[in-house]
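Preliminary data (for renewal application), 3-isopropylmalic acid complex.
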Amino acid sequence: MPARIHTVATIAGDGIGPEVVAEARRAAEAAGARFGFGLDWVDYDLGADRWLRTGEALPDAVLEELRGVDAILLGAVGRPDVPPGVLERGLLLRLRFELDLYVNLRPVKLYPGVSSPLAGVKPDDIDLVVVRENTEGVYVGAGGTVHRGGPAEAATETSIETRAGVERVLRYAAAKAQERAGRLTLVHKTNVLVHAGDLWQRAARAVAAEIGVALDYAHADAACLYLVADPGRFDVVVTDNLFGDILTDLGAAIAGGLGTAASANLNPESSASLFEPVHGSAPDIAGTGRANPVAAVLSASLLLDHLGEREAAAAVEAGAVAALPGAAGYSTQALGDRIATAVAGGGSPN
Ligand code: IPM
Ligand code: MN
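Predicted structure:
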């Protein structure tokens, strides 16, 4: 019996989700065998099929069970035969909100062997993390429609930011900056969003001073420009939910695409955090064996790190990175084989 056992729920979900989760799981298993811990996987049948069959996106009883696991690994949710928003709101966002996963940590890193669409950048030039607030902003769903369909139709989508919500994510980001190069950049739009921007700005100054990190600021539009023109200026970026959503797709693009973009939805104070690749369910390539499992494997690395399995996390990341050069020439499973072999043996998969 291994000394430590971690219970990990998997929500493989839709499209390429099951294919990439299978490879992420193998990489994590290989790390467990090498570093002396066990993983107790519990599979949850959630996603498009479940919803079409039963009308349930996330039954309350399942949510209660998920509160008790050590971590959750999610593949992807969403399919063209389910109306947009049903699974996104009913499953993914509900998990983020109900489990109070207020940090969405999204590394933006250009790995060797991956080509960036930016001219002349080398791997070391792009290495930052975005800390996206994950439970507030426009995502809270406050708003409504009146006179729907008529000439007087009006819709509101209210963005809600709380001092406590802003402060806790800033604390996490500042601590992260302290572990890294010590540079924290707040991204907002204080020149237009004067109410929420002011709250973020004052809270960021207070937290940065308290924790002792340098604080920089960029408007969200300028941050897009800097990400492309000078990504090296960023170390840790902290921002609200919607700006973070947009900025991290751009981040994924400059780091070579969604194939390597991983994310962690964390509540640092409780254990049931959720790990998922940034990519979606890609129904067009589902079942073809062409999905790149690396983003899911890197998400498993973040998961292991969160469980305190630091060496295993580093080995899984190294295994995924070693498999990257020429990855496009391999099937999902063949890449998974290369990664699992590298993780198990500590050597190169070649
Ligand atoms: C993401 C996604 C989600 C978001 C969608 C699927 C609800 O785009 O994780 O970035 O907007 O947060
Ligand atoms: Mn997104």
